[in-house]
Design brief:
By secondary structure, this protein is α/β, with parallel strands linked by helices. The chain is built from five helices and four strands. The protein has helices at about 1-35, 35-40, 40-45, 95-105, 125-135, and strands spanning about 55-60, 70-75, 110-115, 140-145. Strands 2-3-1-4 form a four-stranded parallel sheet, sandwiched between helices. Strand 2, helix 4 and strand 3 form a beta-alpha-beta unit. It is elongated, with a radius of gyration of 23 Å. It starts with a helix and ends in a 9-residue tail after the last strand. The relative contact order is 0.17.
Length: about 150
């Protein structure tokens, strides 16, 4: 009888060991995927939530409404691209990615989508200033602009 139990015990130990290896690898993978949140101490921000909801304006290429990011309010300031559907108005995906990071760091943030970048991820200075003005008029606390500017001399 002892011989029949040992192979079963060995198989069970192998199965448990495999499950533990998979769990460790998954945890390591999750930590690697979240490096950006760790770099800004994002996990600490949600632990110290005091009930006040900060308004974050994302001046970018828009935010797709089919993403997991809840958008409080939005505006499309790209005049030539007003025919873009409201639920998929981010033609490049950059604004949605930025908003996703903000939402992951602070799921209590109220996110405002301000589409200033066109399908080529370009904006005029006038459009950028119009987006900033819109944020001020809507009492936005933080304005996020993760873009670059080229100046021709």
């Amino acid at each position: 009888m002892r011989e029949s139990q040992e192979p079963t015990l060995e198989k069970e130990l192998d199965r448990v060991g495999q499950e533990m290896r998979v769990a460790v690898l998954n945890e390591k993978s999750n930590k690697q995927q979240k490096w950006n949140i760790q770099m800004v101490n994002g996990y600490q921000s949600t632990k110290s939530f005091n009930g006040n909801r900060v308004k974050v304006g994302v001046l970018d290429s828009g935010i797709d409404f089919i993403s997991d990011v809840p958008v409080q309010k939005s505006i499309n300031l790209v005049e030539d691209e007003q025919n873009v559907t409201f639920y998929m108005n981010d033609l490049t995906g950059h604004g949605t990615s930025i908003a996703s990071i903000i939402h992951e760091i602070n799921p209590n943030a109220l996110i405002y989508s301000v589409r200033i970048l066109d399908k080529n991820n370009q904006a005029t200075l006038d459009r950028v200033l119009e987006g900033i003005q819109w944020c001020i008029e809507n009492d936005v606390n933080i304005i996020n602009m993760s873009s670059h500017m080229m100046i021709q001399l």
